[in-house]
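User: Second chain of the day. Same drill as before.
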Amino acid sequence: MAFDQPFDDRPGRIWYDGEMVPWQDATLHVLSHALHYASAVFEGERIYNGRIFKLTEHTERLFYSAKRLDMKIPYSVAKIDNACNALVADLGIKDGYVRPIVWRGSELMGVSAQQTKIHVAVAVWEWPAYFTPEARMEGIRMELSKWKRPDPQTIPADTKATGLYMICTLSKHAAEANGYNDALMLDYRGYIAEATGANIFMVIDGKIHTPTPDCFLDGISRRTVIALAKKRGYEVIERHIMPEELTKATEVFLTGTAVEVTPVKEIGKHTFTPGEITRTLLEDYDEEVRLEVPTTLDTA
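Assistant: Same format as last time:
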């Protein structure tokens, strides 16, 4: 399936409020609360060889995000897991992407919306691997964003809430307009935070350093890579990192559901050479996500 195919006009079905509906019929009203007040949370998951990587972990985070936004999902974790697996089987997707989303409906229009209906939908689509590990090892170019990750006392920064991604879109648009692939965002204190949709790691003196996720999402891919690094015997240090410390880094890479493990060769004036540690973790991650684990449906 082509990436340029519109997302509102595709074959197949979407799981929508407990039912499988034709893709084109999975719509919502223009006065839905989520559209006006960002009262929505979502997940992003990858399908490898027909299996969704860490599905339940993602679904549990979806429920956590919803609870943080004062939304009660009217289904169980198992029900959402089943819907995701059923869609993958229904569409026959071997390598793809899963997007569950929860949002407030159109019963009320205003900041206060306790009586709105909570809707849930899940869509899946093909997302094949376009680059070999060798091509990915060339690295991407990043610039520094003018937007900062906010103080967690101003917004639920530990969730995948839709409103949190507005500044990510602005940052990535600006970076692409300037010829870069992505942008590095600092936090409200001036520490290195993350890319627009991925966590960041850097190798300094043979040790792996990564920012403490105290005002941005502690990614599932991030935690996976940390575990893989420790299994290899690498020392992983989570701490606050100032942007000037990029001068000390020899390798830099990103982690995330979409980017997987992606080396970085440039951030502004700083350049890096994707090396052995990055390659090792890239290959380990590729192997980890493709492990054969039986998929079972839960009737709960």
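The chain has two domains: 13-126, 133-288.

User: Great, on to the next one.
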